[in-house]
């Protein structure tokens, strides 16, 4: 009798864990009056100032890959019916979101300075600015993604983000459902040029995809084609000529499938082609499920000339975003390694890929912002003030030590 009831009990518990992760009909519910789009009122000068804060507080310290991953995971929850870029992570997290609450905390002081922008827009914009200003292509980006009011607004479900163990057929099944084709799947996978694989979210796996994990380029594809990767007993693939370089099973699936492989080889030999295709795929990803209603394109180049103000700023605080506090190195591995995936990007890391063509926007490295000053968590409606909180200090120290898994 108990054996017969056990599967039913498990199903009941799973459904109870999140009432909006069940049937498609439940996922399509919305709060009264909630609209997936809002009207962003930021001025051209506000956007320029925001880019400077992202450059100074996210990219220069080397935290960019975490923010790119945050933007990816927010938008990537779209399942054809619900989900998408609405900061649902503030209410509902799936297993693939491990460590991303640190990215939210790092961006919170910037959000406090720019109250006119939604969390969903900030995450998306910041991730896009990171790519464009870490050597990547110029990207078109448009505002007006509204934040969910609660867990039922375009609710998300498990299984909407890729798994590191997947083969080509599983990748296609997921991405086709979101409206992507084979070329776009491979192009988005090129985001693995940023960050590293690290223990904590990938079990015992750790290693790097590229020599320059803070730079956006085609090195991931160059190494995938030219490396001599062999499977380890634990499933991770390791370059036999340099064991520090690794590939995930899902990366190797791109080589094993002949259609995927053709794009991999093309991007390895032509960085401009990769940049062009990635730009189109990324812009599509950032707008999944929105179906129009977005604002005008905002320039993502942090090094563009400062615009002359044509209208009053909507930023309520003119105070600078708090600069990052010194990062303590006295951190226990157990405090961080099981929960955080971040970047070990270095501002001085700028290796050149021999088969690459120079393209895209200029500049620096990559990912977080300090938690000094007051910061408000919009999900919990609580406020922390004073110097960097202990939680954020631990997160920042972990960022310095452990490395980002940008899991596409």
UniProtKB/TrEMBL annotation:
Destroys radicals which are normally produced within the cells and which are toxic to biological systems. Pfam families: peroxidase. It comes from the Eukaryota. InterPro entries: Ccp1-like (IPR044831), Haem_peroxidase (IPR002016), Haem_peroxidase_sf (IPR010255), Peroxidase_I (IPR002207), Peroxidases_AS (IPR019794). GO terms for biological process: cellular response to oxidative stress; hydrogen peroxide catabolic process; response to reactive oxygen species. Belongs to the peroxidase family. Cytochrome c peroxidase subfamily. Residues 117-297 form the Plant heme peroxidase family profile domain. Residues 1-16 form the signal peptide. Its EC number is 1.11.1.-. Residues 307-330, 366-386 are annotated as: Disordered. GO terms for molecular function: heme binding; metal ion binding; peroxidase activity. Keywords: Heme, Iron, Metal-binding, Oxidoreductase, Peroxidase, Signal. This is Peroxidase. Residues 311-327 have a biased composition (Polar residues).
């Amino acid at each position: 009798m108990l054996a017969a009831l056990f599967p039913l009990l498990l199903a009941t518990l799973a459904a109870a864990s999140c009432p909006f992760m069940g049937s498609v009909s439940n996922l399509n519910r919305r709060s009264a009056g909630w609209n997936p789009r809002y009207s962003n009122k930021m001025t051209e000068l506000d956007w320029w100032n925001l880019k400077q804060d992202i450059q100074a507080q996210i990219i220069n310290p080397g935290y960019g890959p975490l923010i790119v991953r945050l933007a990816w995971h927010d938008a990537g929850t779209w399942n054809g019916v619900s989900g998408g870029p609405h900061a649902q992570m503030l209410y509902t997290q799936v297993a693939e979101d491990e460590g991303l609450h640190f990215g939210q905390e790092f961006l919170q002081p910037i959000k406090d300075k720019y109250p006119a922008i939604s969390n969903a827009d900030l995450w998306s914009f910041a991730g896009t600015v990171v790519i464009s200003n870490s050597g990547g292509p110029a990207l078109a980006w448009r505002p007006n993604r509204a934040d969910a009011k609660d867990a039922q607004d375009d609710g998300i479900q498990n299984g909407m983000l890729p798994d590191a163990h997947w083969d080509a057929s599983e990748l296609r099944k997921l991405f086709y459902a979101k409206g992507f084709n084979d070329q776009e799947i491979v192009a988005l996978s090129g985001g693995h040029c940023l960050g590293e694989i690290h223990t904590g979210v990938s079990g015992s796996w750790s290693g790097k995809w590229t020599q320059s994990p803070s730079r956006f380029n085609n090195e991931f594809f160059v190494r995938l084609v030219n490396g001599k990767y062999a499977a380890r007993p634990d499933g991770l693939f390791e370059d036999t000529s340099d064991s520090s370089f690794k590939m995930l099973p899902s990366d190797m699936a791109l080589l094993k499938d002949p259609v995927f492989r053709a794009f991999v080889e093309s991007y390895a030999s032509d960085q401009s082609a990769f940049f062009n295709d990635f730009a189109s795929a990324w812009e599509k990803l950032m707008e999944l499920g929105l179906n129009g209603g977005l604002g005008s394109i905002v320039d993502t180049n942090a090094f563009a000339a400062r615009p002359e103000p044509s209208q009053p700023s909507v930023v309520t605080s003119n105070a600078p975003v708090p600069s990052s506090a010194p990062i303590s190195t006295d951190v226990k591995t157990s405090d961080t390694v099981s929960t955080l995936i971040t970047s070990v990007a270095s501002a001085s890391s700028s290796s050149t890929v021999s088969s690459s063509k120079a393209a895209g926007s200029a500049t620096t490295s990559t990912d977080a912002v300090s938690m000094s000053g007051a910061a408000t968590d919009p999900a919990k409606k609580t406020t922390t003030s004073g110097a960097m909180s202990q939680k954020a200090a631990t997160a920042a120290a972990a960022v310095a030590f452990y490395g980002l898994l940008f899991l596409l």
